[in-house]
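Data deposition worksheet. Section B asks for the primary sequence of the deposited chain exactly as it was used as input, without tags or linkers unless they were present during the calculation. Section C holds the resulting structure in token form. Section D is free text for depositor observations; keep each observation to a single sentence. Incomplete worksheets are returned to the depositor.
Section A, Depositor: J.P.
Section B:
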Amino acid sequence: MASPGRPRRPPPGTRTLLDVACGTGLVTERIARPGLTVHGADAAHGMLRAAAPRLPGRVVRADARRLPLPDAAVDAVSAVWLLHLVPFAEEIVAEAARVLRPGGVFVTTVDKNACHDVDSDIDAVLRPHRAPAAGSDRAPLITAYAAAHGLDPAPGTVFAGHGQGATPHGTARRLRRGYYASWFAGTPAGVDALCAQLAGLPDQDRPRPDPLYRLARFVRRPATRG
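Section C:
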């Protein structure tokens, strides 16, 4: 399996972090460091079974919109490759803000669809068919949701999806399987036409450059006094 890269570690002083929709725990495990207690939450039993060996005793089944934590319970919340998958991204951002202590940090990937465009020959074929406003994780949307729920923007970063560079052959196969439904809403005939263009590219099984993912960062505002 391709490595997902290593997102930048939480800032100094972070002692507790919750990774929502942790999946198999592969990314969650990479966040851990001495002095930081990392927990994972996911709604799927199968994912949690895979995550348990990586995070022994520190995974819980939970909906990212209803976390089993009190207010201001953790120093950091992460959501990697989640918000682009759901139609309720704002609810997840709001719940992350609720469980963060004042000064705590929420980090999340944004603009995932756009990040896959590395200006390769494959992207030259696909780009005209990408919906420009596709994705429930678009950075302006997430920033607006964050602001509405007490989170202020802070400097973010990027990280490479090591080993995730696309090939023409693999991209055509994914198109036929509907992997790109979030940005391509074309007809089967349109898929066939795109696959024909991809088949004409050289080096069908040579990976193009790895994608660079964007990691946005937000800080929980201090509590206001009534």
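Section D:
Residues 176 and 202 are 20 Å apart (CA to CA).
The first strand starts at residue 16 and ends at 20.
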